[in-house]
Amino acid sequence: MAMARVLPTKKTERAGVNEFRALMESAGHIVEEIDGGNDYGEDCYLSFTQNGERTGDIVAVQVKSGTTYRRSGGYGISCREHVQDWTRSRIPVIGVVYDPDLKKLFWVNLTGFLLREVEQGKKPKSVPVAETAMLDIDTVESAVLRIRSFISKNDRVRSIELGFLQSVSRKISRLKNRNFNDIDRTPVGGIPYEMASDSVDFRERHPGFHPALVKWLSVSAIVVLLAMMAPSLFEVVESDGHVSWLWNGWMWLVCYYGTLAYLLAVSGKDPHKRRARILRWGAFSLICSGWYVGLAHQTSAWSANPVFEWIFVHQMPVVAKAVLLYLTSFYVRLEIDRRRRLKLAYPQGVPEEG
User: Fold this and answer.
1) Domains, the chain, ranges and CATH?
2) How confident is the model at residue 194 (pLDDT cuts 50, 70, 90)?
3) 327, 266 in Cβ contact below 8 A?
4) Which of 49-53, 189-193, 221-225 has the lowest mean pLDDT?
């Protein structure tokens, strides 16, 4: 029976919390983690000490780990659901971003930033974290002084004002849940699906077989489909009346299949799963469009929409050029930003992996 797997995202999240905890404890401060099941926007509490004694100054900490929080000028922490929580909190909340590539921590005063934004009538959706706001052994004490200074200047209980409708809504919710007893009426995990039990049992006994088979079948199906489409797509382009070498059937097929190959190759190398998924969907959309147009010329079951066919045939070379230029420049810019971050984080040179 296969053992439970630890997801890579969970490892990355823990890496950020562990790095932050190790740093602050090495500086003599106290980090108390919040149980993940009770996490409403903070991951731990940080109690400051001075000369080995507690100062009484405490902040809540929101730790984000991963490269998905990178922005053009640093990093960003989403605050859509926490603006009121972080501005009305009786203790300040700071944000920490851990970049696993740089192995560096960056920090921002979430409460301080949001208070300034809200006072100006703004509705922020994220809080920027400067790439110069590094939190390491050399900067931890200056960061602590800034946070404690903010606490001393804002040492007050912020009033929590609830509107009339919100107060009534909360009272109704409490009344509805007063006699609620959460008893499971179904087996743990839900009702089993007997029709799929054998297949899932086989997959759990052979965890490596199923992904390999799915990948092989997917690639084979795509290759066969593309090969079947080529003759009819060539006929469609040739029958459109273009005689220029840029528009003949062979060059059009090069643009079409080259774009598909480029999108699929780039999606396979992109480390960001969401962006890679978007690229794959773009490739599959082109495949389905070609299948729709090409098959319409091979069968009498239906005919392709003339407007769609005209746009598809005439704009395919334009799309190919746009995709090539945009993605190339996009990844070049990302690589330039990555190296700039490395030079900024490690002025003396990037340390070699141990």
Assistant:
1) 8-157 (3.40.1350.10), 208-345 (no CATH)
2) confident
3) yes
4) 189-193
